[in-house]
Amino acid sequence: MNNLDKYWDKIHLKYNSTYDEWLNKYINLFNQNDTIVELGCGRAYCSNYLFKNKFKDITACDFSKEVLKIINKENPNLKTMMFDMSLGLPFKDSSINVVIADLCLHYFNNTTTNYIIDEIYRVLKPNGYLIARVNSANDKLHIPIDAKELEKNLFYDGQIYKKFFNQTDLNTLFKKFKICYMQEKNMSRYEKPKILWEFCLKK
Ligand SMILES: C[S@@+](CC[C@H](N)C(=O)[O-])C[C@H]1O[C@@H](n2cnc3c(N)ncnc32)[C@H](O)[C@@H]1O
To answer: Considering the entire predicted model, what is its pTM?
Structure first.
């Protein structure tokens, strides 16, 4: 695990953010009993939003013990799971209706990213959705300054990877999925404005 969970523990103990309503437009696609998994949930803004909207089977997942402690305290009724998604997803084939992944799929090298996307595809039911946001290659304000650019738009600072995607990268990465929605957007949830890709894909 490379102690990356501890790296994220420290970040979660220091920073907080808010839910910026990006998921609202998708919830009409879901049924109240759908099995929904949020990967890299952090403070579980998305899971808590779905929970408040009466979705019954939501699991907020992260590998940071500290953030899971915080969200369990804030909402003891929200189901949580602790695992490192780079080692695979602990769910059966074709068992999940919706996977949500907000700003958590861009912290891996290309091999691991491909593996995680294959895993998401494996666990989704036919017609299941992956709804996610990732760094855009146009997000110049969040490029890490002390990191080495290993290849175009993939940075590594000796501990953590940060990948910035362009449209071609996404088309290649998600070639097995049907694209329902994909758009580059601005987000103002962080201190500096952020440019990201938001997408809704169907298995
Ligand atoms: C930038 S934060 C986003 C958190 C949340 N989705 C949000 O948008 O507020 C990235 C999250 O991914 C989690 N994460 C990073 N690498 C992970 C891994 N290998 N397995 C599980 N979670 C991971 C971190 O702990 C963190 O909560």
So the answer is: 0.97
Pick the CATH number of 4-18+31-202 from 2.120.10.30, 3.40.50.150, 3.40.50.1820, 3.40.50.300: 3.40.50.150
| Domain residue limits, the chain | 4-18+31-202
Distance in angstroms (rounded) separating the CA atoms of residues 176 and 118? 9
10-residue averages of pLDDT along the chain (203 residues): 88 91 96 97 97 96 97 97 98 98 97 98 98 97 92 95 97 98 95 95 98
Strand order in the sheet with 154-156: 148-151, 154-156, 161-163
Q: How far is the CA of 31 from the centre of ligand 1 (A)?
A: 25
- Pocket-forming residues, ligand 1, beta carbon under 6 Å: 8, 17, 40-43, 45, 62-64, 67, 84-86, 102-104, 107
